[in-house]
Amino acid sequence: MSGHWTKHDMDFLGGRRQRRTRQFAWSRDLVRETVLTPADLIWPLFIIDGHNERTTIKTMPGVERLSVDLAVEAARAAAAEGIPALALFPNTPDHLRSEDGQEAYNPENLMCRALSAIKQAVPGIGLIADVALDEYSSDGQDGLVRDGLILNDETIEVMIRSALVQTRAGADIIAPSDMMDGRVGAIRAALDDEGLENTAIMSYAAKYASAFYGPFREAVGSGARLKGDKRTYQMDFGNSDEALREVAQDIDEGADMVMVKPGMPYLDIVRRVRSELNIPVFAYQVSGEYAMITLAGAAGAIDRTAAMIESLYAFKRAGASGVLTYFALETARLLNA
Ligand code: PBG
Known about the structure:
This protein has helices at residues 25-31, 68-80, 110-121, 152-169, 183-193, 214-220, 241-253, 267-276, 287-298, 304-318, 328-336; strands at 41-48, 54-56, 64-67, 85-90, 126-131, 144-146, 149-151, 173-176, 200-207, 257-261, 281-285, 322-325. The protein has 337 residues and is of the alpha/beta class. It has a single domain, classed as TIM Barrel (Alpha-Beta Barrel), CATH 3.20.20.70. The strands form two sheets. It has an eight-stranded parallel beta barrel with strand order 1-4-5-8-9-10-11-12, surrounded by nine helices.
């Protein structure tokens, strides 16, 4: 006995060696199944009032809220790197937040001013407008609240008005993120009635009640206001078939694109939507995911840049048509370098 394996011992492989294509960078490039490009990225931006203002978000190091003029500069930078679209989120000044969230349909609100300024200055980039009341209401819920209950149909009335002012200000895609029942169909009908049939809808179709939204709520200023949770409208994280029903219903109601949210913990849902339903599906790598990668990188636990790229490939591999990510500009720059 020689004590080491002979070629004969490896005969069970029958010549099938998976490592051959992994030997060189060129051969890995040649057989890579999934490719990430700047065109896969949607960049969320937080907007604040004022001029030449940028404020930091404690729980999202590296992400800033920008005043409209600086958001226009950011849009220019994004377009120059080939990022196809931005998703805008306003941090509404406190004095304009109210129980009825009426600032949501003020045609001069921060969101509308940002939409029209960017549309005018950078017409080639797509603008996605979030529609939900948490960015305008005094209690941080996505819907109107009465006696502690989230009102479905009354909320939709406000959302319709909000979607209309956003569209007129320059939104190309309306993105309802509230999870009220029937909002996609109602918004579609209202847009069509107003002659805005070319405005698309990307619904947050399968949106889970998640712990990973924490930093976002700091960014838009809704977190400290929020009492309780969003579990009577956002989905239970134990469910997967229900996500397929949500997505199918939104398609039925007229959604052009759907979204799964959060991202990395829900890649199984992205894959199911991609495999079982015939519609572009986007994943939102949410604020808590950004924070985890960034803070672990800052602590020296992981390589932030490598983890960022690997995580974005995972979305593509799972079947996502694109990813909403706070890493969008940084990633696009890296991919274009
Ligand atoms: C608002 C909205 C939320 C996010 C996007 N739109 C927060 C929430 O539902 O509480 C989360 C995005 C993120 O965490 O990055 N309806």
